[in-house]
Write a structure and sequence with these properties.
Aminopeptidase; 7-stranded mixed β-sheet; 7 strands
Length: about 170
């Protein structure tokens, strides 16, 4: 598996793959929340200056992607206080590629890039209904930061904040 920067020509595919990857949650959350989530992961926020959009590729097939937002940027469009470390967003793995280490490889590259740039931490947010994602983040060593939680759709669903501080 190779992790590399996404090509501009791959953006439509990546955004479509994100929606397909997150779609399993549509059945367990309110429709309004799913619409908000779908809009967020389909938006062009991943093309903001400084955002590194990475893909995991095997045999020229994109299995997953992730966006690493630079420190000091509004990664969540006003929902969260701006922080002094990079934020991992929109981690998505194609349903048929799950369980093969794709998400871990993408996260590892985000961590490596954050360290390489001299940051002390890297953060992320995930919906409280994304239980597999939370287990993965906690296994890697991310810790909860409840003071940065938010509710994007005012429907009681909390988007939980996590941070990994480097030794």
């Amino acid at each position: 598996m190779m992790i590399r920067k996404a090509l501009e020509s791959e953006l439509p595919f990546i955004r479509e793959q994100r929606v397909l990857s997150y779609e399993e949650h549509a059945a367990i959350i309110p429709e309004s929340h799913w619409r908000a989530l779908k809009q967020a992961i389909s938006s062009e926020s991943d093309t903001q200056p400084g955002v590194e959009l990475l893909v995991a590729v095997v045999d020229d097939i994109i299995l997953g992607s992730v966006a690493l937002f630079p420190a000091e940027t509004d990664a969540y469009e006003g929902n969260v206080e701006v922080v002094d470390y990079p934020e991992i967003r929109m981690l998505a793995v194609s349903p048929e590629a799950r369980g093969k280490g794709v998400a871990t490889a993408l996260l590892s590259e985000c961590i490596r890039l954050s360290k390489e740039k001299g940051h002390h931490s890297v953060g992320l947010h995930t919906g409280e209904f994304m239980e597999n994602a939370m287990r993965l983040y906690e296994r890697i060593g991310f810790k909860r930061l409840p003071q940065y939680d938010f509710q994007p759709a005012d429907d009681g669903i909390i988007v939980k904040a996590y941070v990994l501080t480097f030794e």
